[in-house]
Amino acid sequence: MLVGHFIALFGALATSCNASANSLGAAAGPLTVNHEVARIAKPLRLIADIPLPGDAKRFDYQSFDPGTGRLYISHMYGNRLDVFDTRAQKLIASKEGFPGATGVLSVPQQHKVYVSVTARHEVAVVDDRTLAIVARIAGAKFPDGIAYAATEQKVFVSDESGGIDLVIDARTNARVGIIPLGGEAGNTHYDAPSDCIVVAVQTKNEMVAIDPVTDRIVQRYAVPCDHPHGFLIDEAHRLAFVTCEGDSRLLILNLRAMKTIASVKIPAEPDVLAFDGRLQRLYIGCESGAVAIFEERDGSLTSLGVYRAPHAHTVAVDPASHKVYLPLQDVGGKPVLRILSPSLE
Predict the structure, then answer these.
(1) Helix, strand, coil proportions of the chain in percent (round to 5)?
(2) Strand partners, 149
(3) pTM of the full predicted structure?
(4) Percent of the chain's residues with pLDDT above 90
């Protein structure tokens, strides 16, 4: 049944999507799941805790710019955007004026950083050269995840409680569309090989595919878990990893074969994912206080264990240095950016 949903989803996409009834984008080999835990005593090693300004309150998404080495961090209830230089290993800015900041996305092609500002029901556009806000786009009740379709030069923003995806023209900063989803929106991602926007509709246990040319949903499909919110697409291997908040599961989808490979139990309250493509490591931040770590190798996905840290619900990785970044809201009463190195045993 689920295979049929995938075929319906990607076989009916508009001409902007490189998909057929048998594959989504380029083909890839099959993947299996190894439920055994590899013998790595400490999958992550502490490098440093960097003090961050603001209140000891929740962080949300992060976005890494590999060209500059900058890491943009939404300090959600600290009401600010932190900018960390991963090459110099220092905080270079902490910009106030982002109350309830959730989603953040660096788009170097446009020299812009997009920030979902929930308390103002808007998306703020930041110039990445000056770090000044250059535009504010209204129209979302609770803006959250953000994706950029490069070919169409459009930005798509999940409106979680509004049940829509907001569409922004990246060239003009104008709102150009509203896409009703029929339920609460989880994260939104762009899949470059297929040129499709994919959105989790968490209250319907669905994923939807959007044509970024027409700004229309082309198909829906059910996923076998409760409340899918966060997800990540491994484009090279044609895989999607979906975190399900309601039943604390990681759903692994093989996009080549159009089927679910496995549903794996993970720590409670999973949300943000990060993937190191060179090391083939998947990190899942869980607000219950854990980062679940998996390795993709030789056609299998193996658990490397769990790293424990308080409120570790957002995670980012530098694919060049392999360093892992965890903004933690309260370490000794203060927020810190925890920097870790993966064990390579």
Answers:
(1) 5, 55, 40
(2) 154
(3) 0.91
(4) 78
